[in-house]
Amino acid sequence: MTEPQVLIPVGKIIGPHGIRGLLKVFSYSGNLESLRAARTITLKSPSGETQELGIKNAALHAGKLILGLQGYDEIDRVLPFVGNEICLLRSQLPEPDENEYYWCDLIGLEVVTPDGTELGAITDIFDNGSNDIYVVRNEKREYLVPAIASVIDSVDLEGRKMVITPLEGLLDL
């Protein structure tokens, strides 16, 4: 039996770019190469509806990701896509390098310290410009954990666990 294809959100359409049907995209990973390598994307509307569309081009312009879709050459035709998430099939993504992970694989991991203190689960991830930040929540607290080598001791995707050595004061905030 074949494994079902999993859609991975890689960005969100935040607005049109010019009048020729190009779209500005907020990239969740900053990885333009995945979009350039893909021939199609799946758009997921806020209501959960999906549609597959061909990619005409993907490029960086003034630090922003710009996307062109096949058959969409006018601003009026792409405006309904604003707010949609851009998804790729897991099979369209390259394998991450050693000690690199897709955000979707990290969401839900339980986070513990080396002495076994349970901090909670990763509920969100964001990029602060220099590194990713993992939002770790439990029923009482929230921690913002920097994704840097001196903090992240190990990641066990199969066991759904991350071990961290918190920076001094991180657990006191």
Overview of the structural elements:
With 173 residues, the chain is mainly beta. It has two domains: 7-91, RimM (Elongation Factor Tu (Ef-tu), domain 3, Beta Barrel), CATH 2.40.30.60; 105-160, SH3 type barrels (Roll). The chain is 8% helix and 45% strand. The protein has three helices and twelve strands; from the N terminus they run ββαβββαβαββββββ. It has helices at 32-37, 75-78, 103-106; strands spanning 7-17, 22-27, 40-44, 50-61, 64-69, 85-89, 110-112, 118-127, 132-137, 142-146, 152-156, 161-164. The strands form two sheets. It has a six-stranded antiparallel β-barrel. Strands 10-9-8-7-12-11 form a six-stranded mixed β-sheet, with no helix packed on it. Strand 7 (110-112) and strand 8 form a beta hairpin. The protein is elongated and about 55 Å long. The N and C termini lie far apart (48 Å). The mean pLDDT is 90.
In brief:
By secondary structure, the protein is mainly beta.
Sum up the structure in keywords:
SH3 type barrels; six-stranded antiparallel beta barrel; six-stranded mixed beta sheet; 3 helices; 12 strands; elongated
Task: Break the fold down into its secondary structure elements and pairings.
Elements: E1 7-17, E2 22-27, H1 32-37, E3 40-44, E4 50-61, E5 64-69, H2 75-78, E6 85-89, H3 103-106, E7 110-112, E8 118-127, E9 132-137, E10 142-146, E11 152-156, E12 161-164
Parallel strand pairs: 7-12
Antiparallel strand pairs: 1-2, 1-6, 2-5, 3-4, 3-6, 4-5, 7-8, 8-9, 9-10, 11-12
